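Hello,

Following up on my earlier ticket. Below are the four sequence lines again, exactly as submitted.
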Amino acid sequence: MAKQVKKEDSAGTQVMLDDKDLSILRLLQQNARITVKEISDKVHLSTTPIHERIRRMEETGVIRQYAALVDHARVKKGLTVICYVSLKQHNRNAGARFIKSILDMPEVIECYNISGEFDFMLKVVAENMDAYYDFHVNKLSQAENLGHVQSIFVMGVIKQVQVSI
Amino acid sequence: MAKQVKKEDSAGTQVMLDDKDLSILRLLQQNARITVKEISDKVHLSTTPIHERIRRMEETGVIRQYAALVDHARVKKGLTVICYVSLKQHNRNAGARFIKSILDMPEVIECYNISGEFDFMLKVVAENMDAYYDFHVNKLSQAENLGHVQSIFVMGVIKQVQVSI
DNA sequence: ACTGAAAGACACAGACT
DNA sequence: AGTCTGTGTCTTTCAGT
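Thanks for your patience. The regenerated structure is below:
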């Protein structure tokens, strides 16, 4: 089992899932490396339909990716920062250029378009405060059309789960 | 390959990883279902050491979990909300009770202790605005010792990656 | 620490109900 | 829709370097 998930880009299309799909999905959210055989034992179906249902959820983009989740505190990325950004101008091109520059910054592991005072929320991981300062001053602040930036530091992780359905 | 990752709870202990470990980790962050054989081809080692290195990273808590990442927009959880919460009192017991109640709310998929004006940041997924309103009024706001709540709505996902090292 | 081999388990496709 | 069966591939362990 080695292939990457390929996302079909019919953006935002709802996919109908029955109870068995949801059971399978929950198991995969908890443990992406569970075997099809184990799923089939728990869901009371043989392996073939499990296979087909997983393949369908991969192809329709319900399953975006299988990922190993890393404890950043243990691998020299101890600092997580929530970063709010507003742009000076809000035309389409300005936004697109900012997004493009964000996609190229490996420190930024999440970015959302948000409502309210700011335009974007970023989740940034860095080795330490010096590294974050460098990112802030030399990378993020160099993005053209940047307005205001506000940084909020994560002091502790209370909860991080994937099971959402 | 079916076992869950077991986290050793020597909280926050740094784990030393060499370049080969990091290569393996990057591959697993991109695709948790990659085969050991494929990793061994890319990292130029045979399967045995790959196995041992992965097992070590699982046992030391570097790899927290293998997870299928779901596109919430496609599975009737179209609304993501960033939610800031402050408490009235900041003693240890009050915080612990709030955390306990958060851990019991399936709508809350992430929760962080943060610096600044608010005490916690939550990421909440809901089916729609009605469902979020219900969560806000009937669940979150019922938590004892709750001060202020501010909701920021996610209008679009720009980036969500796992590769952080 | 690593290589190579070998046994058992698994994924995945095919024929069938 | 699903079960059953088979083949090739993978995981995982172990002896050896």
